[in-house]
Amino acid sequence: MLTISNLKKQYSNKNILNGVELKIEKGEILGFVGANGAGKTTTLNSITGILNPDEGTIMINGLTASDDLEYKKQFFFIPDTVNVFKNVSGYDWISFMLKLYDQEQTEKLSYFVEQFSMEKAIHKPMGTYSYGMLHKMALIAAFTIEPPIIIMDEPLNGLDPRAVMTFKDCVKNYVKEGGTVFFSTHLLDIAEKICSTVAILKDGKIILHEDIQKVMGEENTLESIFMERQRE
């Protein structure tokens, strides 16, 4: 599904990624965790083509960034900050996104709009949306498009409790239908409940990628595992 090999990135002579190695299989819900500055966002931006890594290879379903549009159609990316044209309505924005993925408006769109309680807002300019509403619209687009993998950077930021519950349900259903999820988060208790696997990034390297239940065992929490690994 997604393979990252020897990924390296440097900013101002400072190494951010130091040879990231990660393989995500179809059907995984991977929680990507790490301290601030560990390189999580840099990794995600490298996968999605926002940044060009200094070294390394990234493949999704056998395709690389050199495959251009076909590569980009393998994923939908939700960044930490969703930037949009402020005068465009949510409906028109999603319609445009669907066309990029060669899809038409479907009943799925109406379903997810209802699930995330955006019926009244979807025809309003996105410049009037709150931070959380922008994330809801991005999630609606992702689950409607249903690409092979959804990649997200802190997708739960700004979501109200009901939207978090909806997010959980949508992720589980999406994976049941054959999808894969890769998202970074600082909310370890949420990751513990949603994710099937966890990857910990420290000092620009993956120090753990394991089945979440296996790594926690019967007595540990994801938070305790994370803190233990940070002290090593």
TrEMBL record:
One of its GO terms (molecular function) is ATP binding. The keyword Nucleotide-binding applies. Pfam families: ABC_tran (PF00005). Residues 2-228 form the ABC transporter domain. Signal peptide: none annotated. InterPro entries: AAA+_ATPase, ABC_transporter-like_ATP-bd, ABC_Transporter_VariousFunc, P-loop_NTPase. Keywords: ATP-binding, Nucleotide-binding, Transport. This is ABC transporter ATP-binding protein.
